Amino acid sequence: MTQSANAVSHASLTNNTMIGSPDVVAFTKEDEYGQTSPEPWDLPEEFSVPLHPLADSNPWAKTSYAKFTKDFILISEFSEQVGPQPLLTIPDEPKICGTFDLNYFSLRIMSVDYQASFVGHPPGSGYPRLSFVEDSRVVLGDSKEGAFAYVHHFTLYDLEARGFVRPFCMAYIAADEKKIMLQFQELSLRFSQASECLKAGNRRAFAKELQRKLQDLEYTHSVLQREEGLQREAGPQCVYSAHAVEKANELANVEKSIYEHRDLLKQICSYHRRPRRDPQAVACRRCMTECLSECEELLDKYAKLAEPVSHSEKGGKGEGGEGWLDDSRGEEEEDEDGVKRRPSYTPQLIKAKSAKCFDKRLKILPELCEGTFYEAAVELLKETERSFRGDLCYLHTRRLDKALRKNLRVVNFLFEEELDDNAEDESGTLRPFCAVNHSVDNHVHLNSPHIVLGPDTTQLHPSKPQDPLNVASETSTTRQSELGLGESQLESSPSDQTLETQESSEETKGSFSSDKSGLELAEKRESMASMISEGPDPDSDLTPEPDQNTDAGRESSSEDVETTAGEEDDGDHERDQTPVSLLEVASELDDCDSLNESKLLPPIDAACCMPQEHFLHEASAPDTMSSVQQNSHPKPSQILVVNQEPQALLPVQGEYTVGSPCSESPPTSLELPVGLLGDVASQTSVEEGSDCTLSASTGSDRAASPLGYGGTVTLRERKKAGQGALRFVRQYPFAMQALWCLLRGRTLVVIGSDEGRVRRLVLALALFVPSPGKCGERVQAWLSCPLTLTDLLRWKLIGLQRVGSPVGSSLLYSLSRYSRYISILDVDMKTLRCPPYSGRLLANIADHRTYIRRGSTFFLHIQSTLCRLAARAFLFTFTHHLHLPVSPVEGQEVVESRRRSFLQEQLGLDKGDSQVLLYLSQLITQQYLWPANRSSFSFDYTTSVLYKI
Amino acid sequence: MLRWILGGREAQGSLEKSPVLCIGEEQPKNCFTELQVLKGHFDIVRFLVQIDDFRCASAGDDGLVLIWNIETGERLQELRGHSQQITAITTFVCRSDVTAHPSLITASSDRTLSLWDPDTANRIQTISDLQSSVKCLLVLERLSLWVSGGEELCVWNKDFQLQCHRQQHSDTGITALIELPKNCLAAAMDKEIVIHRLTLSTDSSVSVSEIHRLSEHQDQIRALISVNDGLFASGSHAGELILWDSISWTTQATMHILWEESQASTQTEIRLGAQKPSEMSIQHLSTNGKLLLAAVGSGLYVYNVVSRTVVAYRKAAHDSNVLHTTLLSDSEVMSCSEDGSVRMWEIQDLPLPAEPASAGFFGMWTFGRSSKQSGPQSKKVVDIPNLRTLELTGDLIGHSGAVQMFISFKEKGLVTCSTDHLLILWKNGDTQSRLRSLALFHKLEENGGL
């Protein structure tokens, strides 16, 4: 099997032959991971591909024929009405898939593993069974489309669907096969989370649906019973008439249906009890217990409800001899009682099912899973998509970087941007994802009346998937089965559970549908009968009936509205967010600049290797052309996705699906306002930097965009700041002193009358503020009131407005008052007032004759210098004898001199540089001792000097 | 140097510039290189009291009393209960057999007196039906009694039971109280110092009686302090500083500090202009038993009570009135002022002993009823051979309002409180960084590595 996988991947890389059918590249079992790979990003043996493909040396060649420009996630369904159809792409933009044929690809991926949906009567049980199918994970490639996909199949339950199951799949589609193969484990993990989330929501929805159905059935049952009673009352002679027999059959069918549904409910409740073979399918414990208790409650309720019905049935029969007249009254009472008991839902008579299954409207995905869960899953997928942006090389370096930085927690707060905690779990820890976010109080989400919140966690089922023994035994069995099945499994999912359940599906389905048809007939009859024979109490039954109908209708419609609203919100959200994230990616890929500039590669190839927005940022003419080319493609993209399910023409549905001919979304979403602004800004900044004019006033009227400070500072912004810093360094001969002030923790006040200029400068200088805080809390870009001591404690870099009014004089007074604590950089007069710097360290980064021309290069240069500095500070901080006496006889002076000699001789730092190091060391110490910032402010008393250009 | 920044303040600055000295930013002797701002008050903070060697209490016009750990800067407790500004606060040590438990007595404008436990923030005792608000408190530890002064003088025992009281017939009431030997009390009331004697009868009841009045001061008495066992000193609004014998209540020395400029000075217009009384008002007195330090207007005046000589003085020590002073040692002086700064001084020998009087003159030995106008006539040029000078060694700038008071915790730091509602904890940066390093390696050891 390993060999075959290798062979296939060889084939795919050399681009020679690709099998026409969905060529399954390789599949894997989750248990094969973790054992083989010592490094998380290392490939298991069987996935290793030759580093240098044989024939083609052009690395972009294999992706050149992909018809989409960047990776995306596709959710499709195998609809029982129309077959495979795409439902949703993430990101939700029509242009994302270019000319890529989503319908065709859906067909491909759905045909790999059509999850055997199955309901049958296993021997020994009289009721249809739900199949608990584990998700399956496949990687497949399509040579024609140039697409490779990680495909994750899962099934959801739907009472109205054939066999109660609806097969779905989520696919991560990329042009680079290697990327998918290397990221397989993580993809699998993330998609499992999303799938678990959807399934959890689906189980809840399914249980609710069952509950309604049961109520309907019981109601129908009671009505039928009453009719039967009436008939009997009418006369014993017609008890054996054909009509009566039909009625009795109908009743029996309804009863059977009740039992079946009750059993289904029991089954869905037992969902959590079964051992999971999928180690990645970890659900939130609290969600699980909640769901479990909810189900149990339902189960109890219907076990109880059902008994009285059957009991009253008997009772009715028994009482029949004593007085028939009471019956109707009793029924009515019970009805009232029933209404009282469940005010949330008014049961309906089960209508006859329409025979054509194509007529019915299948539920859409957000309906199948509860809205919250659906949204959470989509959010999870969006996050997945975001985190997998960029090419493999980029992902790899980022991961390395992250892994390294994780080990440097003690110092990386100084100059590195903050790692977000979400991204940290990706190393494979199985943290269950919870849709309703159980760390937060989620009562708001779960306020449907019949849900009991928070039972003890003690009732969790013991056989959790984490059970190592269990997993081990299972893996061994799966191995065996794999070995046995060998090639045959290449074509389908490795989930042997589906295989085992596939056989007898036909027969059971048939039998069940016949059941249903019987029921339908009965219902028709029944409804007719109710029209005719509702003699004794017309008000009680006739009037409620339409009421109930409208009620139900209202309910469902309101539900629709709800979900739609949610979707719309979501859409807005997405629209808001996308540009920002696009920018992020572009900046992340900034390193490819050189590539881009060299223009050696044909534009189309380059376009494929990196997201196209990139060209807009760093654009030179040919590149923009290529991007225009790219953008002119998407004409057919709108028609690619089936927006609506064929028969269901509800207006709300368009909202759910992708690429609906929504007029407000422009064909090239790159031109969204925010993105555009950002692009222009970055473009100009690049220009300003590259032509090296020292005119600081260019574009000064254009206020810097309100980036950063307030939100996390992205890498892109930091690189842009690098450009600003480079300009500052080249422009001001005393830049070194200013940077030194920042690095040694002396607050720098940038004063100027032009807000844009001050803000830009502050943004640039913020790179040099040690420990700027997660959101740049130590930096204040624009302040127009007099400084106070608290400001000085809070901020290390302040942009201050120069004003001429009385406010201005008090502002200047405050500056002079606190002048001993601050350095003042006057943008208008181009002066700097600060203590003189003596040292050599900063000459390296603040050389105003530097040959560095690009902001991002300069940024990296700064980073490396600061990183070295941080490392030294770390060494200094944690070297015991530099701070404390070695022996009790040693005085403080000895330690002092030892420290000085260490700084001067071993680290080669002059006095000024030593101060920088001491400040950094102090920050490290404080961070280590009290991570929750305890604010103390240290300074020294030295004379300041006024520097001029 | 700062002129380019100061801009419009030029004229104003020149007006007050000449007499006020400016140390600049180079202050090698200033060891306070780290500060921490303690927030919590909502109004002017007027009082600071040291509870033990790491805690202090602050109280102010918001009626709050806050307990601080000055090692960490943490706010330990919040004593809430007074509805109006606090007018007096003192520590009161409840001595049981073995332990001495410090507690706090506070007096407020809401006419209540409270006893607090600073550990738990419990209000142990409260007296709320006072006829007038209390302006000063005095604890007589030896007798386990405490005295409150306002419009009436009340003596309380440690259980907050009123032992006796005495109505004072004065508009201002008692503004200051000190303890004198032989169970006597000196109370400053307007222009007089009234000596009271406490009589403890055998049944542990206490009575208080007025036995003497000292009426040497021409103006309202602003400061009253007991120097040592034999002497106490008082200072008035008009700049009269009188040293009294604690037992015989006789005048030992009288000085009238007028802050006159020397004739040699070119700035005659300042001398001739009528001086505002506040310029010579004695705001605060402090002593270490040997030296007496007076805050006179915006100046400082150091007097040796043993040799009865002036040690050093500086007329323009601050830009504005000095509010609180401390003698840190025989040569170190600290003062805070309405100008928002705290200054540290060193009493140094004059660099050129040949011209000791060039710095300025002051009228002294002015017996009799000399008014302000009579000052210039009565002053004598006194050439004091061993006159030394107060050299500014450092200043602490941080508060944006008048610094009301400060307490020094020796090497642990200095706490200042101000009208800007803040307290600032000033520390020696080197010491702190050493302590932090110690803590770091301690934690490292605890954690067993990084």
UniProtKB/TrEMBL annotation, chain A:
GN (gene name): SMCR8A
Entry GO terms, CC: cytoplasm; guanyl-nucleotide exchange factor complex
Keyword vocabulary terms for this entry: Autophagy, Cytoplasm, Guanine-nucleotide releasing factor
Bias type Polar residues, positions: 472-481
Domain UDENN FLCN/SMCR8-type: 63-925
Ranges of Acidic residues composition bias in the record: 558-571
Annotated compartments: Cytoplasm
Matches recorded under Pfam families: Folliculin (PF11704)
Listed GO MF terms: GTPase activator activity; guanyl-nucleotide exchange factor activity
Keyword Cytoplasm belongs to the record: yes
Chain positions covered by the region annotation Disordered: 309-345, 447-576
Lineage of source species: Eukaryota, Metazoa, Chordata, Craniata, Vertebrata
Chain intervals with Basic and acidic residues compositional bias: 309-320, 517-527
Biological-process GO terms, alphabetical: autophagy
Protein name per the record: 8
Xref: InterPro entries: FLCN/SMCR8_DENN, Folliculin/SMCR8_longin
Family indicated by similarity: Belongs to the SMCR8 family.
From TrEMBL, chain B:
Gene Ontology BP terms: regulation of autophagy
WD repeat intervals: 57-78, 104-126
Cellular component annotations (GO), alphabetically ordered: lysosomal membrane
Key words of the record: Repeat, WD repeat
InterPro entries cross-referenced by the UniProt entry: WD40/YVTN_repeat-like_dom_sf, WD40_PAC1, WD40_repeat_CS, WD40_repeat_dom_sf, WD40_rpt, WDR41
Cited PROSITE patterns: WD_REPEATS_1 (PS00678), WD_REPEATS_2 (PS50082)
One Pfam family from the record: Beta-prop_WDR41
Protein name: WD repeat domain 41
Organism: Nothobranchius furzeri
Gene field: WDR41
